[in-house]
Amino acid sequence: MYKKRDGGTQNMFTQFNQAFANILLQLLSVLVLVIAVSQVSKDPVRRHCKLVSVAVLLQFVSIIVFMFPAMSTYTEIGVGSSLSTQMYVHHFAGLLVIIFSIYIKLAVDGRIKHIVNPFKLMKITLVLWVIVFIGGLSLYLSLWEGISLL
Fold first, then answer.
1. Helices 49-62 and 15-39, axial angle in degrees (round to 10)
2. Which residue, 81, 84, 127, 129, has fewest beta-carbon neighbours within 10 Å?
3. How far apart are CA 102 and CA 107, in angstroms?
4. Which residues have a Cβ under 8 Å from the Cβ of 88 and sit 6 or more positions away?
5. More confident residue, 80 or 121
6. What's the pLDDT at 136?
7. What is the overall mean pLDDT for the chain?
8. Could you write out the DSSP letters of every residue in 23-79?
9. CB–CB of 88/126 below 8 Å?
10. Per-residue model confidence as pLDDT tens digits over 92-141
11. Is the overall model pTM greater than 0.85, yes or no?
């Protein structure tokens, strides 16, 4: 909160600022992921796995702090059917990325018996993560900048 000239207060963390902060958090997450991918052949167990875990944690924080409240708001006010469909596909695919990432981590660490080869699932998860990120940028541009990519 900060003081306005007329003596009242105004919340500096508006919905737009929250969306922008979320985009910055997503960019940081993708940057950590890019570094993790670059480390896979150099030090797969130590650096790569730790960096991917950090990226997943950043995503999880983003979902809880920014995306879940925003999704609740948009379902209440209603958005166009095309945008609504894009939003639900984005959220579903994003949840798959989180679920796949957790499964991969547990399977690689030997904490669970793997049903699907976690090393093959890593590539699928990476591609899905990139698609979800691009979809999120598209949603951001549509909702906050009035620019439609689809």
1. 170
2. 81
3. 9
4. none
5. 121
6. 86
7. 80
8. HHHHHHHHHHHHHHHHHTTT-IIIIIHHHHHHHHHHHHHHIIIIIHHHHHHHHHH--
9. no
10. 999 899 999 999 999 998 899 989 999 899 999 999 999 999 988 888 78
11. no
Residue whose tokens read 């006010």: 77
Q: What is the number of other CB atoms lying within 10 angstroms of the CB of residue 123?
A: 9
Angle CA(96)–CA(99)–CA(104) in degrees, nearest 5?
Answer: 120
> At 91, is the pLDDT very low, low, confident or very high (cuts 50, 70, 90)?
confident
Is 9 a residue whose pLDDT tops 50? Answer: no
Measured CA to CA, the distance from residue 94 to residue 54 in angstroms comes to 16
Which residue reads 């009035």 in tokens?
A: 146
CA end-to-end span of the chain: 37
Answer whether 55's CB lies under 8 Å from 29's CB: yes
Residues 132 and 97 sit within 8 Å (Cβ to Cβ): yes
Long-range contacts of residues 20-27, Cβ cutoff 8 Å, at least 24 apart: 20/144, 21/66, 22/62, 22/65, 22/66, 22/67, 22/70, 22/140, 23/136, 23/137, 23/140, 25/58, 25/61, 25/62, 25/66, 26/59, 26/62, 26/133, 26/136
**Helices and strands in the chain, H and E counts:** 5, 2
